[in-house]
Amino acid sequence: MLHTSKHMTLNSRRQHIWETVIPRFAMRSEALMHLLLALAGLDYASARTAGEQPENTSPDMEGQPSPANADHDHRHNHTLDATYLQIIIEHHQRGLEAFRTELANLSSANLNLVFAGSMLLVAFALASLRIRNLNDAHSQPGQPRLDWIFLIHGLCTVIKHNWPEVRMGPLRAMTQYSYANDDWRLCPRGALRSVSSMRRGCSPRLVAFCRGADAALTQLVGYHASLAAREGQVLEEQKTALELLEGMYMRTLYVVHFSDEARESPLDVQADLEDAALMAWAEFLPEGYLDTLAGSGVSSTLSYVILAYFHLLFSLFESVWYVKGGFDGEIVKIKALVDMSGERELMSLMQWPVAVIAVNHDHSSSMYNV
């Protein structure tokens, strides 16, 4: 559990919260304790899968059978030992039950506890994407997972009504992101596209992303415009999502080109990307966007392609254990879905994100080696 608390963020201010404040909350909260133990279980499994043994493990996880077996045929998914998985699920379910009680009695007295619990629930949902036997329990095999987005939307609906109080409380560092702004709008687009001016320390995958992001985004927006013209209507949810996607992509390019050049290690670069709040995009997806994924028409398939482009942002965080690998797998699932549609233009639009996740990253930059 202590190991997990040390490896939830690349930002020193937020790391202090994870290492001190949240464990302290958990000591007096049944909900947080069980949720933290469940998350620690997935962390331990991820480390074992990667051939790395954490220094600290939860006491009730010790002595259990090997928690994970690497799937050599599919690098995006892993299967946990059934006994070990059951321990994780029991902690998660008990934590979730207690959390619902706290949520039903939300007040100033337990607001920060609910906020901390929300972060633990989201982290667990993200970490579970790469665990095959947890994946199969949430969706049909081979289908992209959407439940975690619904979870985020639901939790944000609750928290946003108390946002000012959260921002003044003991977890306020969790709400502060230095590069979560639109400063990129002040820069010429050509400067953001330039590969030659990128800071050192960018991983090969991040370089591949930056080389193709603007062109791929332009093609995606262009396809949406042409489809809207053919359909005779503006697809508003997709249009709003594409505007959000542009902002997140341009923030990424801005950080890579113009953030602190003195910080040049891969972990430093990823820490700055984290400070751009790139992993928060799901909070801002327009209401109704997930509804556009229903059905089997071209518009629905386009919505999945847009979702794959969002997933690619998570795939840039190669040193963050709870997102590493999971979203690569989700992109592969979406590619298969698009291929089944037979829509050649959409199949072409999927080539770029698939090419980016195919770029190997430097394992020496792993958060576990810090």
Could you give the distance between the termini?
A: 17 Å
Alpha carbon gyration radius: 20 Å
Please give the largest β-sheet: 2 strands, antiparallel
Secondary structure: number of strands? 2
Number of domains: 2
Secondary structure class reads mainly alpha
Q: What is the spatial order of strands in the main beta sheet?
A: 1-2
**Strand share of the residues?**
under 5%
Taken from the alpha-carbon principal axes, the silhouette is: globular
Protein name: C6 zinc finger domain protein
GO molecular function, one term: DNA-binding transcription factor activity, RNA polymerase II-specific
Region (Disordered): 49-75
How would you describe this structure to a colleague?
The chain is mostly helical and 370 residues long. The protein folds into two domains: 1-49 and 92-175, no CATH class; 183-359, no CATH class. It is 59% helix and 2% strand. The chain has 16 helices and two strands. The protein has helices at 2-6, 12-27, 30-49, 82-104, 111-127, 132-138, 147-159, 163-167, 189-193, 204-231, 236-258, 266-274, 298-315, 326-341, 344-349, 351-357; strands at 68-70, 78-80. Strands 1-2 form a two-stranded antiparallel sheet. Helix 2 (12-27) packs across helix 3 (30-49), helix 3 (30-49) packs antiparallel against helix 4 and helix 3 packs parallel to helix 5 (111-127).
